[in-house]
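Crash report, auto-generated. Payload:
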Amino acid sequence: MEFDRLRVVLVDARNPLNIGAAARAMSNFGFRRLRVVNPYDVAFQDARSAVGATSVLAAAEKYKTVTEAIADCSLVVGTTSVGPRDLQHSLKRLEHGARLIRKHLSSGNCALLFGSEKFGLSNEDMSHCHWLLNIPTREEHASMNLGQAVAICLYEFICDPRAPVKPDKRTLASSAELERITETLLQALRASEYPKLNTSVSFHSAVRRVIRRLRVQSGDAEFLLGMLRQMVWKMEQKK
Amino acid sequence: MEFDRLRVVLVDARNPLNIGAAARAMSNFGFRRLRVVNPYDVAFQDARSAVGATSVLAAAEKYKTVTEAIADCSLVVGTTSVGPRDLQHSLKRLEHGARLIRKHLSSGNCALLFGSEKFGLSNEDMSHCHWLLNIPTREEHASMNLGQAVAICLYEFICDPRAPVKPDKRTLASSAELERITETLLQALRASEYPKLNTSVSFHSAVRRVIRRLRVQSGDAEFLLGMLRQMVWKMEQKK
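Recovered output after restart:
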């Protein structure tokens, strides 16, 4: 996937915070080509001059029409929260659509269109699209915040369910370490005159099992042992 | 996964818009239990009274400390944009961590902690966590907007890479339809006195191939044919 082949196109965006948020998410995920179509100009200027405005925003291109903003793209995808029954277009869930876009970006440019905060994309905007993308929200509250919708789409492009699970460097304590903890805990219990110690024959085993269930990490074994030993020392001193 | 077992916990949130955005994303994806710890009170009140504030926000619970906010949770996960080298904790990428959280939510409560906009979670906040979660952003610009970070985490919980790809109801045009289009286009070309028609023997095949590459949909075949026929009619009238 070539990140610079994706154009994020905000159509009729009205809120400078949303334009800024879209640019920030792009920067977070490594996308750089932001285009705004017919923005509310004050909003666009406000967003650009905001503290912490990203270089993505500084390089954003302004267009008068969708036609111009998507001219160099061979795939045009619109985003919508509307259910399939009201649409003339093929509608794909984000998980599936993102795969198709990712594939397309290896060879061609793709425009991803987001409509205005209030109304979304118009029918005319959508007529430029090859198909539509839908974030699987609840039907009862389908309409997403613009900045969040952009962020989620971009995340879906870059996320990798097959990313290798990083092996945890922390290893579990060895049986020898666990046994030392078990013995020291028993010593502490004896020093504390813990009542069950003398009545239950299986108590030693019960303590051993509970220590194993704790999943003590190797680096923590000495730390725990030290604490127990200190308590043993204190209790035996009191006798 | 039981959605109501997840608690989204915003620690030291300062911006009412972010609190509102977090609540909106929760509502979009079907999560309802929002908790705020030590919020800037004006911000919390502003967020609650904002136009379009969700029922999630109305039901949000306020706590003084992280300890109280996570008391009923058996898994506590913190979010961070910091790289692994600076952390005392095990750090998991969102794609992997979300699977673990989803699994946990089938039997126990999980708290997902988000820190303040400026500083993220403190070391003390993190010490309550079993492990940490990281959205795979660019290293050069790792810090995400709070509302967007919440939205992406929740999306990763509900998204389903194995969601069945909805079969496209639109079917491709049949060969008979395509051949009718091909013939009518050739007729139109003849009527227009298109020059190549008479010089190239393979022209007929070339037109047939280009029509096949168009992936004309079944419902569009008649529409296209009608347009071509009208043009043929107009051109032949002029003779």
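Post-recovery validation: Chain A has a mean pLDDT of 89.
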